[in-house]
Specification:
- With 120 residues, this protein is α+β, with helices and mostly antiparallel strands.
- It has a domain of 80 residues.
- Strands 2-1-3-4 form a four-stranded mixed β-sheet.
- The termini are far apart.
């Protein structure tokens, strides 16, 4: 292969790689699919409820992965706040629970300490 042909092939490869990178980046900017509903949408549908301990609960098994992601983020916050305040993460969760429940829309299902569900 001649030097000029290798240069053209290398240039074509680099251009193709650049185009692929741009397309891949744009895919990350597209909206999430309908199955990845927001937590508020899931609460409104009754598929997710909030609990006395500051964690969300899946009321429908199809949304368990969403709830697990939300709870992992909440747990990290509770642990951090607990260290800062010198209290347990469970205590922090209970404080956050009251705020979450207060701010949640009417109709949200709430899991009480007794283990019963009630609708806000």
């Amino acid at each position: 292969m001649m030097r000029s042909e290798r240069l053209i092939s290398r240039t074509a490869f680099i251009n193709s790689l650049a185009v692929f990178s741009v397309i891949a980046a744009l895919l990350f900017l597209l909206p999430m699919p309908a199955s990845a509903q927001s937590l508020n949408d899931l609460r409104a549908s009754g598929k997710v409820g909030e609990a006395f301990d500051g964690f969300a609960r899946a009321r429908d098994g199809s949304v368990q992965s969403v709830v697990s992601d939300v709870n992992a983020k909440r747990s990290a916050i509770y642990v951090q706040r607990a260290r800062e305040q010198g209290i347990s993460p469970a205590q922090v969760g209970e404080v956050y629970a009251s705020q979450i429940i207060t701010k949640s829309p009417a109709g949200t299902w709430i899991l009480m300490k007794s283990g019963t569900w009630k609708q806000k």
